[in-house]
């Protein structure tokens, strides 16, 4: 007998709590034979095993020993997992264990060791039977690298900690070849050709002192390798690199629009592909097999950003992470040209009405091309819409075609949302970033306002119903608009914004070497007569629009007194505003309940001031 199901009715926008639900699944990995998937599940990060061929996704829990937490897990063989467990006690300790997944039995490998800080798995070679771990002990501020034998668990020191060297680079054979050191405004490279050699800094200072060289990769058995560095165009490209001489060689690849974010090498040390972000994250594969594989995945999952996160040893079964700006993503099993959804990051959004996000381009008043993103409320005509402008933080950062729960919340309430990559944004080359120097509250703000005018001319938005909202530098831009602009915006919303630029720089001073600090201050102030002249709190008396100010009390990037200063000034002047602090919150919201509360406050604020 068939039972009729109730009609779920039309799709509705998700609530703030649904948009901010913690990830339902994290770090899934296919077993070497493709028969199992291990993953962390739920907010508690419980370890679970799945049969990828079971449509109901019935999971088998892996119970960890009481009092221990999982640091990381990796497949050793089809039925065996390797895990790092830490016991929190009077003397915290970390141990490696092998897990027999059929029996649920744990066998410790080697001796437990004092729990380090920031443990990172640098390399693992199942065939050779060893792994490399980067970790800090409690006596040092820089990490050492340990080699762990996978059969016995015996740990030997591969590379001792060196002063100021925070990052270590490993070649394809698992040999630590280079380290990147930094102190004050100087950086350098230490290098060796093989395990029998000592590290030398000679001849590498030239490359190391250039902060635009962002990633190194040595080729096994050679002094040659590859690096990301700034090309003559000002964009970051892929170069050959001579580690012994510390010198860039030939330019291998440069994208015509965007900086490269990273690269991968084939097992024989040739460039396999490069990653970059133009309007969205992309991977350009030079390797023919990888290029064909990516094309097949993209054909099966069109209009999304797709990335292989795990594969069986024979490469026939792939686990793919697939996402879009309207979807936090899901994991798919890909085989034989077909993609089958395995698990969603946020199942609460299934069946919900989410808004499309498109790439836009417009010209600023001085002709500079501005790229950005426009989100339109689902199911509504793109005409005469109320608008929320959301400039990104940084300000030397950028927005990308990524899922943003704040944007989707606003779109669900019927607002269009504009996210402009104003001058100073990164990822488009040095010239675009340098255009932001000295433009706090000036050219950067003009670019944001020009996006509003562009949308108004097109008829997409109602120019009389526009508000501005942002966090960090975006919060500064919202405060600045509230204090200085009574024409473009009806209201402003700031989270963790900067109201007093001089006080913020005084706070930042302790993290800078003096020369670097003076350069940073000049980069912000530019030709402005004073830092006070670009501080929103200076103009609190001119503020004539509603403003919502929020901040976390544990913010160590922009201290909470930045919001308190503007709140206190507005209170003294008797100017109505809303002010809320979130105890214990950092520069970014970490507690979903607090973030949901903030979005709900934003919703009520907009209902009152820009319905």
UniProtKB/TrEMBL annotation:
<keyword id="KW-0031">Aminopeptidase</keyword>
<dbReference type="GO" id="GO:0004177">
    <property type="term" value="F:aminopeptidase activity"/>
</dbReference>
<feature type="domain" description="Peptidase S9 prolyl oligopeptidase catalytic">
    <location>
        <begin position="402"/>
        <end position="609"/>
    </location>
</feature>
<protein>
    <submittedName>
        <fullName>Dipeptidyl aminopeptidase/acylaminoacyl peptidase</fullName>
    </submittedName>
</protein>
<keyword id="KW-0645">Protease</keyword>
<dbReference type="InterPro" id="IPR029058">
    <property type="entry name" value="AB_hydrolase_fold"/>
</dbReference>
<dbReference type="GO" id="GO:0006508">
    <property type="term" value="P:proteolysis"/>
</dbReference>
<dbReference type="Pfam" id="PF00326">
    <property type="entry name" value="Peptidase_S9"/>
</dbReference>
<dbReference type="InterPro" id="IPR001375">
    <property type="entry name" value="Peptidase_S9_cat"/>
</dbReference>
<keyword id="KW-0378">Hydrolase</keyword>
<dbReference type="GO" id="GO:0004252">
    <property type="term" value="F:serine-type endopeptidase activity"/>
</dbReference>
